[in-house]
Design goal:
- Strands 1, 4, 6, 7, 8, 9 and 10 form a seven-stranded mixed sheet that branches. The protein has a three-stranded antiparallel sheet with strand order 3-2-5, with no helix packed on it.
- The chain is globular.
- The termini are far apart.
- By secondary structure, it is an alpha+beta fold.
- A hairpin with a 3-residue loop joins strand 2 and strand 3.
- It has a single domain, classed as Alpha-Beta Complex (Phosphatidylethanolamine-binding Protein), CATH 3.90.280.
- The longest helix has 28 residues.
Length: 225
């Protein structure tokens, strides 16, 4: 009651500012997010425009992704829990990329698919989605510095037949390389992702486990010496 009494006596100018902030909160978030994508060159390396909404991503032990924060490969061995603003009747596509393989200075394999799920009805990607590239964790080669890992969700106009994407065994690295989202989005009329987020990571002792999942990725990506 005391707080309500104080709130009711706030000067009209402060109430006006508060109302303006709440009304335009989404706009502030969009501006901040867009600038962050530019700061890390996600624009233009992956997108032409930034996703409007943050993608809520939480890995095991409560580890969250937060626009360029640093995680370790050992933190992300298992698929995360992901949330976004969604319509239960619409379909979505979920994608995770390593933008900097084998290195950020020479990303000749850009972008490398780490996870790809299409035709997700609503937000239930674990049960309704069609997985075209299983989640494998991340594998930044040794001595290549920090890599950028981008995770995003696109809203589909309708259900999509993604089967032409499967050109070989997706546990072989060569079939996950050179994923160009800009071209892909035009092909399937996906537009700018509705939500996204990204983190940075470099090599740790768990990376060889990821290589084994991919039939020895290290044979295709030679670490720098």
């Amino acid at each position: 009651m005391l707080f309500r009494h104080f709130y009711n006596r706030l000067p009209l100018q402060l109430l006006s500012i508060r109302k303006h902030f709440l009304t335009n909160k989404q706009n502030y978030t969009v501006i901040k997010n867009t600038q962050t994508y530019h700061n890390y060159n996600i624009i233009p390396d992956v997108f032409d425009e930034a996703p409007n909404e943050p993608l809520i991503i939480q890995f095991k032990n409560g580890i969250e992704v937060d626009y360029g924060n640093i995680l370790q490969p050992k933190d992300v061995l298992e698929p995360p829990i992901i949330q976004w603003e969604h319509d239960a009747k619409k379909y979505y596509t979920l994608c995770m990329l390593d933008v900097d393989l084998p290195t950020r200075l020479e990303p000749i394999l850009r972008s490398f698919q780490l996870w790809f799920v299409g035709n997700i009805l609503g937000q239930n990607y674990m049960e309704t989605g069609e997985t075209y590239a299983n989640y494998i964790g991340i594998g930044p080669p040794k001595n290549t510095g920090y890599h950028r890992y981008v995770i995003f969700v696109c809203e589909q106009k309708n259900k999509i037949d993604y089967s032409p994407l499967i050109k070989g065994d997706l546990m072989l690295p060569r079939y996950r390389n050179h994923f160009n989202y800009k071209e892909f989005s035009k092909q399937y009329n996906l537009g700018i992702p509705i939500a996204g987020n990204f983190f940075l990571a470099q090599y740790d002792e768990t990376v060889p486990k990821v290589y084994k999942k991919l039939n020895n990725l290290s044979l295709f990506v030679t670490p720098l010496k």
